[in-house]
């Protein structure tokens, strides 16, 4: 069985050193078990009512990455990175809440009665909610898990880049993605072949308001 051994990195080092990398070493492969660990750690991210609507399509087969290349507008990291992760939001994820809350009961986090009430309330909420409202909420959750995945990857010693540049319709057709899933982004994961371009951030004073929005 493939195993993962990595040195834990200080959190502030991770957030400081994480940059969007577009040049990857094509010889680097990530063991499947380590990819699973990284995804599992990423799913510790929060989600509304703990619905966990994120889903991942991992593409590490070279032939499939070649097919994905034109869909991703020929961005070279599509084929040179160790894996491409398609982050999806499952618009029917609320149908899994009974499974989620049953696990919480088994773990001793809530009673069966509480679970039943929560499942009923959530099911009613999402079945009555507009599709656009549900999608908006689930996209937020999928964004949270995406950022967490990139930080987790950096803690494992890998680099990433989030990608919004791709043809969404062609992506769905290539991988036969059902309509219940909406794409959120692609994330390339691998080892940098050369350093990422340095970037700057606006000072906090330019992006923060205190106790009201100044005109």
Automatic annotation (TrEMBL):
SUPFAM superfamilies: FMN-dependent nitroreductase-like. The keyword Ligase does not apply. Residues 15-191 form the Nitroreductase domain. InterPro entries: Nitroreductase (IPR029479), Nitroreductase-like (IPR000415). It comes from the Bacteria. Keywords: Oxidoreductase. The keyword Lyase does not apply. It holds the Pfam family Nitroreductase. Belongs to the nitroreductase family. PANTHER family: NAD(P)H NITROREDUCTASE YDGI-RELATED, NADH DEHYDROGENASE_NAD(P)H NITROREDUCTASE XCC3605-RELATED. This is Nitroreductase family protein. It comes from Paenibacillus sepulcri.
């Amino acid at each position: 069985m493939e195993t993962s051994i990595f040195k834990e990195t200080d959190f502030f080092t991770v957030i400081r050193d994480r940059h969007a990398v577009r040049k990857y070493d094509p010889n680097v492969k990530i063991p499947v078990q380590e990819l699973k660990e990284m995804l599992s750690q990423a799913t510790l991210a929060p989600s509304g009512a703990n619905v966990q609507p994120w889903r991942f399509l991992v593409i590490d087969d070279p032939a499939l990455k070649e097919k994905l290349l034109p869909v991703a507008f020929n961005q070279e990291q599509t084929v040179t990175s160790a894996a491409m992760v398609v982050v999806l939001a499952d618009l029917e994820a609320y149908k899994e809440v009974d499974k989620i809350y049953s696990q919480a009961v088994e773990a001793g986090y809530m009673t069966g009665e509480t679970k039943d009430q929560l499942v009923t309330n959530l099911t009613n909420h999402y079945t009555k909610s507009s599709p656009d409202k549900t999608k908006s909420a689930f996209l937020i959750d999928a964004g949270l898990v995406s950022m967490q995945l990139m930080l987790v990857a950096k803690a494992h010693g890998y680099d990433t880049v989030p990608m919004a540049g791709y043809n969404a319709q062609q992506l769905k057709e290539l991988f036969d993605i059902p309509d219940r899933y909406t794409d959120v982004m692609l994330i390339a994961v691998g080892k940098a072949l050369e350093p990422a371009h340095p970037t700057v951030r606006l000072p906090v004073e330019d992006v923060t308001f205190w106790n009201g929005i100044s005109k």
